[in-house]
What does this fold into?
Amino acid sequence: MNTSIKQKHLELSKVGIEFPTPKGPFCALKDVDLKIDKGEFISLIGHSGCGKSTVLNIVAGLYQATQGGVLLDNKEVIQPGPERAVVFQNHSLLPWLTAYQNVELAVKQVFKGKMNKAEMKDWINHNLELVHMTHAADKRPDEISGGMKQRVGIARALAMQPKILLMDEPFGALDALTRAHLQDSLMEIHAELGNTVIMITHDVDEAVLLSDRIVMMTNGPSATVGEILKVDLPRPRDRLALADQPDYNHYRHEVLTFLYEKQRKVEPVSTKKKATEAKGKNKVA
Amino acid sequence: MLKTANLSKVTALEIKSAVNTDFVKKATNILLLPMIGLTIFLFLWHIAAKNIDTSLGQFPGPSHVLEQANTLVDEHFNEREKADAFYERQEKRNAARVAQDPTYEAKIRPYTGKPTFVDQIWTSLYTVMVGFLIASLIAVPLGILCGLSQNAYAAINPLIQLFKPVSPLAWLPLVTMVVSALYVSDDPMFSKSFLTSAFTVSLCCLWPTLVNTAVGVSGINKDLINVSKVLTLSKWAHIIKIVLPSSIPMIFTGLRLSLGIGWMVLIAAEMLAQNPGLGKFVWDEFQNGSSDSLARIMVAVLVIGMIGFMLDRLMLTVQRYVSWDKSATLR
It folds into this structure.
């Protein structure tokens, strides 16, 4: 998309955050530096608990960075706003509203006074169509499947016409087939609208398939950006064709190496001895 | 062709038998078991009543109570007839006087017969509803405030804990004196005893709704709050669009508890405030001390129970109508 036009769109500089705990402040993030161009698709990947969601929440304005700051089009981000729409992990649709009404709530809030009623209606329907949910517009969240809920969640975010679309593991709770389907939909939408997207994921394939750049994060505490991998695969991307391509596998391998060798993390479920071993390895890395 | 026909026959039969057993099961659950329970209760009551002698005669058994229930209904209709007759006579008299002297302004005097049992039921229902409404109008907004703001909760919580366990009887003398002092009017719209009872009910109805609303509001899904933040909803829109719908189930739990408590409190309040309701009926019968008094009180007890049950069902119906979550089990 617009990646060729270099334009500083979103800038995270020296972002850090500390959470107060009874045992003193806990430093979750430190010195996160990231520059994102307009229209770029960025994935944040890392082990659970490394602060990916915290980065996203800071960009969204839901958390305040204790050090550094975030600039969007040269304006500091200090509070949440619809120009940074969030797609939440578990859809977060209001359960008492239909799919249409959920999108409507966002549209009414963002375009109050800018659109008349008919325009709003068209715009809501257009966004539901974008995620192929027109047929279930009048269904409530408990009447549709998990994948459909997530689609409506995406439609709601897109309907805000955000500068940046923030997605917190949007497909994490879905089965593999539905996930693949939604990933394809997301690629289509991204190609059509050219939004800037920051997506958190645990899924290496998802990250390589969708992203322009993959931001790999180190383990916390004091997590930060470890490596950034540029994915130079031509778009539109086709998952079947890519599966056999050496380039694609190379990128996958890079990410896997980072996650499982350089930032190897053993969950404390294992025996104490192993955990200390892992810590040692981490230091070496 | 034949096979499919056969098959459909079989499935139809199966379905029928399934429906049948289902029906029997349901009938057992809905009718038979409660009937058994009721019969056992009536039997035990009958036996126990026979063996209890009070200074007002034998404790009333089921048959005595049923008889008095009929008497009370009859009394109501007799009283109504008397009242109708009284108004008819009055109208005739007035008409006659107006015919004689066209400038005469007819005075209509109300019938002054004593309120019947049925009248007293209506008074009680009216009083409890007014008290409950006042309490709800205060408790729901206050509960929302407490749920939204940790500070408000910290400020109000001690008061809630302090006043929640207070018996209505302790409030009553204070409320009576305050109402007498403040409600001074030549042409009072409400009687003082009515206000006293209603306010006492309100004071005791407040707490369950307040506490449950606060808990419901503070327990709203964090993601929904984030949605509201990202959309930059105003405080007011946040309350109307997010907070209220998601805490409706808890609010109604509180309202139902409150109404139940209110109904219990009302009977006690009416006894002491001498508000013409069921409580006063019970008190009057007790003071009356005839051989039928205990049976009549027992009728009142059963009616109070039934009305309490119906009030709860009423709230449940309202909740079903208002709440978006139709799938939630409502008990």
The radius of gyration of chain A is 20 Å. The mean pLDDT of chain A is 85. The longest strand of chain A covers residues 8-21.
